[in-house]
Amino acid sequence: MKVLVLNCGSSSLKYQLIDMENEAVLCKGLVERIGIEGSILKHEKEGLDGKHIVEQPMKDHKDAIGHVLSAVADPAVGAVKEMKEIDAVGHRIVHGGEKFASSAVLTDEVIAAIKDCSDLAPLHNPANLMGVEACKAILPDVPMVGVFDTAFHQTMPEKSFMYGLPHELYKKHGVRRYGFHGTSHLYVSQKAAEMLGKKPEDLKIITCHLGNGASITAVDGGKSVDTSMGLTPLEGLIMGTRCGDIDPAIIPFVMKKEGLDADGVDKLMNKESGVYGMTGISSDFRDIEDAAAEGNQLAINALDAYAQRVKKYIGAYAAEMNGVDAIVFTAGLGENGIGMRETICADMDFMGIKLDPEKNDVRGKDRIISADDSRVKVLLIPTNEELMIARDTLRLSNR
Question: Which residues are named in the active-site annotation (predicted)?
Fold first, then answer.
């Protein structure tokens, strides 16, 4: 069975075609600048020398998906001979609210429920739904499944997801912590258990998804019991351009001082803050690390603050779960930040965390990187959200 996985953004689209018999990626690619001048598709296939590039106007997601399917079935660069070889499509959906605690077949009722959650993720859900509608128009008879970023966190107890706000705001508007990156946290926690030769239900794991967007999750017995992101992906860690946890009183204070409206302060916190705002250099941690190595004090401070925030969440979640068996690093910085992992794990021997410098000297590979005598195992696991989406799509479309 071949599953096409789609991840639609407002002006971009990532995709993979996966053969579920052996979970091999047959081809993958990225479409950028949908609806904007300079639309481009970059397509890759195993054995293909370089990338297949399509530069052509794509006015909307239906256009983009049409080009994706053409590339997937292209005799020279594609992975199937005809469209009917695509057995199902899995869509990443960012926000499922409280309505979805697991993936779901995309019926009209489910699509309507996703639309109802759009005010909780105005930048993401509408784009995800554009991809769904475009794909349904082109492949009307192919089963489609929605896999929600928020679903894994629906096991959180009320004490973890409720805010100290009037209860009416929760009842009327759904104001609570939802959490994100759930597909990634689920994948790496399950993979960690496999690598440790144990069952997920027998482990307490802290998963650290550290990228431009970043979150940490406490996984107790295979279930999410707390996570750092909240109503939106803004809460929690310092990120590439997001501020993370701040004193809420900063918002009206800055609005008055800078003459900002709600949209202006939202832009400030989501797109102009994080390590980018702290340094004025970049939202890319590689650039920040290069600047720090050259002695830039703002870059040094930003990296220190980032590591300290991650360390604080690890300590909090270990206390919340009454212990921790394993810590997992994943996503762009988590998978490649050798120095960042070392800094985060430093001076945590009181918790039984001891990194092995030689084992930690690796990027993007499944590996246990803690010392042999470390009571808490530390693992590096590249995330694979697309595979998790494909697995759920296979399971649900075969019902």
Answer: 149
149 given a catalytic annotation: yes
211 is in an annotated binding site: yes
Q: Could you tell me which of 248, 311, 236, 312 has the C-alpha nearest to residue 274?
A: 236
197 is in an annotated binding site: no
Inform me whether the pLDDT recorded for 271 exceeds 60: yes
181 is in an annotated binding site: no
Triad 26, 183, 34: Cα angle to 5°:
60
Q: Is 289 annotated as a binding residue?
A: no
pLDDT of residue 292: 95
Q: How many domains does the chain have?
A: 2
Asked if residue 255 is part of any domain, the answer here is yes
Proportion of the chain above pLDDT 70, given as a percent: 99
The CATH number linked to 317 is 3.30.420.40
DSSP string spanning 111-137? HHHHHHTGGGSTTTHHHHHHHHHHHHH
In the set 19, 60, 116, 149, the catalytic residue is 149
Residue 233 and residue 352 in one domain: yes
pTM over 0.70: yes
Q: Which domain holds residue 308?
A: 198-380
